[in-house]
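User: What would this chain look like folded?
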Amino acid sequence: MARQLEELIEAPAAAPPPDVGEVPYLNRELSLLDFQERVLALAEDTGLPLLERAKFLAIFAGNVDEFFQVRVAGLKDQVAARVATPSPDGLTPAQQLAAIRDKLTGLVARHNRAFVDGVVPALSDAGIRLSEWASLDDDDKKHVDGVFDDIFPVLTPLAVDPGHPFPYISNLSLNLAVMVRDPVTGERRFARVKVPPLLPRFVVMPDGERFIPLEQVIAAHLGALFPGMEIESHHPFRVTRNTDLTVQADDQEEADDLLAAVEMELRQRRFGQAVRLEVDAGMSGETRDLLERELDLEPDDVYVVDGPLGLDGLWALYDLDRPDLKDEPWQPVTPPALEAGPDEKADVFGAVRAGDILVHHPYDSFTTTVEAFVRQAAADPNVLAIKQTLYRTSGDSPIVKALIRAAERGKQVSALVELKARFDEQANIAWARALEEAGVHVVYGLVGFKTHSKTLLVVRQEGDGMRRYCHVGTGNYNPRTARMYEDLGLLSCDEDLGADLTDLFNFLTGYSRQHDFRRLLLAPTQLRARIVSMIDHEHGGDGAPPGRIRIKVNSLVDQAVIDALYRASAAGVQVDLVVRGMCCLRPGVPGLSENIRVRSIVGRYLEHSRIFAFGDGERAPVRYLIGSADLMPRNLDNRIEALVPVEDPALQDRLREVLDVALADDVLAWELGRDGRWTKVPTAEGVNCQAVLQERARGRARPRRDADDR
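Assistant: Here's the prediction, encoded as C-alpha cells.
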C-alpha cells in the first residue's frame, strides 16, 4: 500500500483532456449527470400534470445531493491524495471535477427556472400559491407570528466571535447566515440559525392553498432571536458533506463485528468534509467568503441559487390531496395464476407448483404476489425454514413483520441484512435488531462485499418430501418502491434453482468456496466472465450468421463488458441496449460500435429491472436472464449479485414484450449519439412503453379483478 501511495504522489500531471472522438468510453460521472438532465426534462415538460413536475424537481434535487455526497466527494478525495491517473475516458479527477462544475452550473440554473418561472406560476393558476413574506397582509402575518411562536423554542442562534467558534454545519441542513450589528458599539457579528429539519419545509396558510417557505418565517422574526441587535442581512445557505461509508476489514476487527463497525462509520459520517456550498443569489461577498473560509471550500465549490434552496422538500407539496394535478392512479393487478375465487384464499405454493410465475411490478401487485408468498410461508405449519436477503425495505415493512411472525412460530428464519446499503444503514440496523430479538438468525453481510442479490428461499414439508420455493428478483423487498420502481421477479419451485439458493445462503451465512451453480449466475465469482462469454457466443462463425443482443440495465460502466460489446458489433451482431442511467459505451462509431444502439427510458416509473437476452431465435433459442446486477465494476467485483435464467416459453414471451415496447417507445425514450449526447426520440407513433405495459397487465387480469378494483 505504501508503494502504491508513493507511485500516486509521484505521478506526473495528466495531459489536457483528449478529443472525445478519440476515446471509446464516456465519462461515468458526466453520464450520470446526463441522466439527471433527463429527469429535469420531465420537470420542464408542460404536458405532464403539475404536481408530477414538482415531484421530478424534488427527485432531481435529491439526486444531485447524493451525487455530491458520494461521487464529487470521492473525486475530491482523489485530488487531495494527488491521484492523477485518468479514468478510462481520459480525464483525471481534477479534470472531472471541472467538467462536473461546468455541467452542473447550467443544470442548477435550469432547475431554478423550471421551479420559479414554470411550476410556481402554474401552481398559482391552479390555486396553490407559494407566497413571500412581503406579500402577506396583516391577518396572514398574524397567523405566521403564531407559527413562529411555536417553533421559537426549537431555534438556536449561534454567533461567531472570539468566544464562540464557527459552528458545525450539518449535512444538507438549511441555514440562515445572519449579519448583526450592535447599535451601541457598532460591532458586527456573523451568526447562524439552523432551520429545524424535522419541521415541514413550507408553512401552510389558513386557506390551505398558500405556502410560505419556513426559512422566510424565521427570517421575518430574527429580532426575537437577536434582541436589541440590528439585523443587517440574512440569507439562506446549505452545505453538502462527504457521506460515503466505507467499512474496511481493520475497522471491523477493531469494532469486533460488522454491526458495530457500521454504527461507528455512521457517527463519523456526520463530520465528513464539506464538498458543496449552496447560497442565496443575494448573499454578500463578505458572507460568502466567510462561509468558504470556515468550511474549507474553494470558489468552484459554491453554487449560487436564484430561488429557494433544498427543493427536495417539494415532496411535501406533492403530498397535497389534488388528484387533478397528478397522474391517474394505477391499481396494480394480481397475476391470474395467483388470483383466488370469491370464497377462496390464494395459494401461492399451489400456483408455483403448477409452473413458474413472472411478476412485473408495479404493473403486477407486490402485495398479492411477493408479500403474499412470505405471509403464507410465515403462517403455513408445513413451512420449516425461510431464508431471505434484505438490501432496502420500507419503514413499516410487512416482509420483515412476516419474518418475525415466522420466527415466533418456531420456524428457522435466516435474514441477511445488508448494513452497508447506502443511506439506509440506520434503518437496516434497526430492522436487524428487531429480527434478532424475535429469534431470526441475522447475518450482517460480508466484509468487503455488499449483498445486493434479491433472493428468497422457502423450505416446505410436503407429502412427497421437502420442496423448495424460490423468488429471485431485480428489485428490493420494499412495498413502497414496488409501486414506483419497474422490477421483475421469478417465483419457482425448480429443484436446481432451489438447490442453488440453498448453496447461496450457505455461502452467505457460513463458510464456502463454491463458485459453480446449476442455474444461478453469481457475482463476484463468475458473472462477468459468463456475460462476456454469452456476448462473444453471438459472433457466429463457421457459416453461422451473427446473432442479436438485447440488454436492459440501470448502468453500463464495466470496461470488459463494453469491450465485449464492441467486439460483437465488429462481428456484425445487432446490439440494442436500454440503459436508464450511466452508460460509458459510445454507440454508432464506425469500425467500433456501428451496430450498437443505446436508449434510455425515463418516465412515471423508475426503470429498474435488469433483463439480458442473447440470440435472434433463429439459429438457436433466445436465452433470457433477469436479476439484480448492473454492468458496473462495483456490481461485478464487490457485490453479491444473482442472475437467473427464465426458461418457460410463456415467461420468455413476457420478457420479449418488455424489451420490444421499450425499444419501440417514442414518448419516454432518449437516444445516445456517438458524440456522447442524449437526444429525445421524436414522437411518431405515440408509444409510451409504461402505458402499454399497464394496459397489457390489465388485459391479463381476470375481469372479476378489474370489477373489484373499480
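The chain has a mean pLDDT of 88. If you want, I can go into more detail on any region.
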